[in-house]
Amino acid sequence: PIPAMPAPSGPPSQHLLWWRPWFCALLILQTIMVVMQIVVVLDILGGFIDAIVLGLGWYAFHKDMHITFICYWGMLGLINGAFDLVKFIDYAVKAGAP
Hints:
This protein is mainly α and 98 residues long. 74% of the residues lie in helices and 0% in strands. α2 (20-39) runs antiparallel to α3 and α3 (44-62) runs antiparallel to α4.
């Protein structure tokens, strides 16, 4: 079983606040990539699922780096990345076939 996600026990720590601008930069980059995924690649369903993950990240950022939602954002991003890797491998294997 997956252990429970950590819950904040007060205001965010100084260490977490130090990471806040980097987390924002990562979310901005992820936002650009999701928009490109939907508009350029036309992967509507994948982009929608990535947008849900992105929404969790922005919600965590908006709630003063809420550690629970940062963990949810990271876990869902890891799972979604694994599915995208499988999709990429499937495409790469089939691209060489006649």
